[in-house]
Every structure is written in structure tokens, then in C-alpha cells.
Amino acid sequence: MSRISKVLTVAGSDSGGGAGIQADLKTFQELDVYGMSAITAVTVQNTLGVTNVYPLPPEAAAEQIEAVGSDLGVDALKTGMLFSAEIIEAVAAQIRAFGWTQVVVDPVMVAKGGASLLQPEAVRALREQLLPLAFIVTPNLPEAEVLSGLSIRTMEDRREAAKRICAYGSRQIVIKGGHDTENGDRVVDLYYDGSTFTELVGRRIPTPHTHGTGCTFSAALTAGLAKGLPALDAVRTARAFIQAAIEHGLELGHGHGPTNHFAYRRLQGVSR
Ligand SMILES: Nc1ncnc2c1ncn2[C@@H]1O[C@H](COP(=O)(O)OP(=O)(O)O)[C@@H](O)[C@H]1O
Ligand SMILES: Cc1ncc(COP(=O)(O)O)c(N)n1
Q1: pTM of the model
Q2: Most buried among 60, 106, 176, 185, using CB within 10 Å?
Q3: Mind listing the pLDDT tens digit for each residue in 125-169?
Q4: What keywords are annotated for this sequence in UniProt (predicted)?
């Protein structure tokens, strides 16, 4: 077998299996990369919501990253739920120490049910410590508003927010459009590489089962980068992966169900 790409997720655990570390590892597996994890927090969560969050000590995140980085090696990594400024600082310090550049920052702030996954006072650390290390940052619309300080109504607002967020140091950005219900039957993600904007337009699937869409998207993007895809191609693959996963949602649980991580591979007819 040719050399397998190695991918690390630094994120929170979702006991329900649809978001966080669990979504990331499933996505990595489906995209034929070797998945590793550094857990930052354990959430008590199902499709109905998050009922508790147990953050781990910042050293726990740092030591897990050190363990995999020093032994197995990391071709690309993503960050998800980081919860506190102290964990962000510990994670950023490891990324700097290893000199990793293929870094996808998914600036997770709030779960779909409304529970906070990032302390409000940690936003500054996210902007100042982590964004300068990001190859691509992937906020949803509410996260883009917090990071840019702008209220985003129009595509023009979104482009301005993208520029402002990139000014913190991220090389590229995708502002995801899942929360924008003004676009009718379209969902539009906006990609910006520091000079050019690209709108990725997909069909909006009318479903409540979108738990873990952001995690899954950023995990697929990270897998693509690890395999050496150019950034925009990795973004397009991640869009296709999440589109299939939402379209063939599993309808599990009694609330916002998870997406279907098997769907993309099955639709591609890829066999291993
Ligand atoms: N109903 C939907 N139909 C199709 N694509 C969607 C839908 N909801 C979200 N997406 C896609 O899923 C990804 C995650 O989007 P979003 O919901 O904005 O992020 P988050 O899960 O971080 O809140 C994006 O690529 C977005 O376009
Ligand atoms: C542990 C954890 N991390 C992230 C999310 C956000 O999920 P989404 O991808 O739906 O925004 C979540 N609900 N739980």
C-alpha cells in the first residue's frame, strides 16, 4: 500500500457520535486517511442537545498532540471544539513547536441546540493565537459575525467579514452558508484565498438532521489537504462529502440527527 496520509483532529468528544471527534474520525476513515485524535473536552450529548461539558486540563490536549506528533507524524490537522483560552493556548503552542502548516481551524462556538462549546472570553485567544496558524478557517455565519465583529446580511457583508477574519492571519477562509435561509433552495459557501472569492453553490436539503455538518465538512477538508489536494479542490471535495452525508441522513435519535458518513463513498462506488 502506498504511504497513507496521517490526520489529527483536536476537538471535543460527542457521545452521540454525530459531531466532534467521532464525526472527524468517521470522515477520515471514509476518505482513506489515517485518523488520530487529541480530545479537549467530553460533552454529554445526543441528538436532542448537550447536557454537560467536561473540559480536560490544557496539558491533556498538549500531551496527546505531543504523543502523536513525535511518533506517528501529522500531515494535516484540524481543530474543533477547544472550549477555553487555556486549551487554545496549549494547542497553538504545540502547532508552533511542530511547525505544522496544514492547519484547518473550525472555530466551533455553539452547538446547534444552543449550548456553548467555547467560553466567550476565549474568542480573543482564538483570533490572536490560533488564526495566525491557520491555513484555512471555516466559520459558519454566526461564528463569522463573532470573529469579524460585523453583522452579516448580504454576500457583500460576507466578503467583508472574510477579509477581516483573514487579517488575523489565516491564509484562506470558507464562510459556510448553512445558517443562511434567505437563499431559497440554494446553500452557498464563500471561499476566499486572500485575493479571489469563489462561491460554492449547492442544493439546500430541507432536513432538520444537520448535527455535525460543520465538523464533518472541516474533517473532509483536512483529509483532502493531507492527501495533497490544492486548497480549493479540497474545499470542493468536502462540499461533495457533506452534501451526500446530509442528503442521505440517518434519521437517528429524537432530535437533530447525524449525517451519513458512509454516503459519499457509497455514491462514488469506491471500493477498498
Ligand atoms: N440543509 C443543507 N443542505 C445542504 N448543505 C448544507 C445544509 N446545511 C448545511 N450545509 C452545508 O454543510 C456545511 C456546514 O455548514 P453550516 O451548517 O453552515 O456549518 P456548522 O455546522 O458549522 O453550523 C457547509 O458546507 C454547508 O453548505
Ligand atoms: C463535541 C462537539 N463539537 C462540535 C459540535 C458542533 O457541531 P456542528 O458541526 O453541528 O456545528 C458539537 N455539537 N459537539
Answers
A1: 0.97
A2: 106
A3: 999 999 999 999 999 999 999 999 999 999 999 999 999 999 999
A4: Kinase, Thiamine biosynthesis, Transferase
